[in-house]
Amino acid sequence: MFEYRYQLISEEAFDLVFANKIDIKINWLIQNLARYLLKNISRYRGIIDLIPAYHTLTVYFDPLLISYQEAKQSLNNLLNSDLFKNSSFAKRIIEIPVCYDDEFGPDLKDLAEYAKMSIDQLIETHTNSDYYIYMLGFLPGFAYMGTVIDRIAMPRLAQPRKKLEAGSVGIAGKQTGMYPVQSPGGWRIIGRTPLILYDPNRPEPRYRAGDYIRFKSISKEQYEQIREQDRAGEYKLNTISGESDEY
């Protein structure tokens, strides 16, 4: 079990704090603890909401129904139960199609030069890993994912672009991510997915923290086909499930 502590941040909220580092095993525990509590929220009277992040879990509670000490004890009991000490959790990998074309990847050439490899080798390298989603933030549905291998972990742009199209896929150091809506951004853009990543009429994204993303290289022709299918509601994501070997 990992070491942790509690930090009261208001009369109605506190943080469960683990080591201050990006660690898949710690984050996996946080995500599954939050998911379990939310799924069984009726059994934890007074706990209102939970916000998982890289190495913290923020817990909101009603002090009229449960005290800070009681809420902490509920978490302690869970963290020390067999469910979280000995059990493994299902690993879900979601395949995201990406077109790595010059039109969609303005930083492809620069990143290939940085990595001292061809563009084809860069694409192969980016698609050969499964990227863990540590958290969602910055924009609705923006997934912070890792870990990018050192060779292609190029730092973000010194001057962010004023506009990136929705679906842009990029790298910023050890992280990779997808822009769910049009926005400014400083990540190194190497491709674009034709999928709708955020729909205000369907606020739940197609992936969640704790999932893995596997990028699949597609042609420009396939990009247009999938784009049309997805907008018509006819495209089904390829999802692979299995037992996690991370925790």
Automatic annotation (TrEMBL):
Q: Which SUPFAM superfamilies does the record associate with it?
A: Cyclophilin-like (SSF50891), PH0987 N-terminal domain-like (SSF160467)
Q: Which Pfam families match?
A: CT_C_D (PF02682)
**Top-level taxonomic group:** Bacteria
- Tell whether Glycoprotein is among the UniProt keywords: no
Q: Which GO terms describe its molecular function?
A: hydrolase activity
UniProt cross-references to SMART domains, sorted A to Z:
AHS1 (SM00796)
Keywords (A to Z) from UniProt: ATP-binding, Hydrolase, Nucleotide-binding
Limits of the Carboxyltransferase domain: 4-215
Q: Which PANTHER family match?
A: 5-OXOPROLINASE SUBUNIT B
Q: What is this protein called?
A: Allophanate hydrolase
* Species name: Oenococcus alcoholitolerans
